[in-house]
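A favour, since you know our structure tokens better than I do. Just paste the record in under my message, thanks.
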Amino acid sequence: MTARRGETWAQEVLFRRHARMAIGLAHRLLPHDGDVDDLVQDCFVQALKRLHTLQNPQAFAAWLGSIVVHAVGKRLRRQKLLSRLGLRTPESIDNLSIASPTAPGEVVVELRRVYGVLASLPSEQRIALVLRRVDGMEIPQIADYMGLSMSTVKRRLKTAEEELERRR
């Protein structure tokens, strides 16, 4: 693989091929973070530096996705800590960022509620729930992306679903 040898053009091809997927994943996990593009760029830098460790070059997209998921988890934990310490105020939910301008009012209200619940969940429950409910991933794929066992993912999903249902 020429990207492994540091060929700039090959690395650029990887970026162009996978950037949309990585940015979309990061936006779904961090819908109110204006620095998502920077986070994804940092993930690409990290991936390209560690490209030599990738066993199967065909698995680059999934591998990059797991790097994005780990970076998002770290960002979510940091944001919660800063909020607890009073160094960061929770962001309000912007209707325009979560729903189409033509969406019915009840849909916007429901989306605000769901995003409010998501914001209160621990980061790993939140990530697992978004990967399952929004991205439609199966348990084994979520486990790969999150670097967890399938039983741990199932527990996190069950707890998140119960909290979502409880607040409904």
In short: The chain has a mean pLDDT of 88.
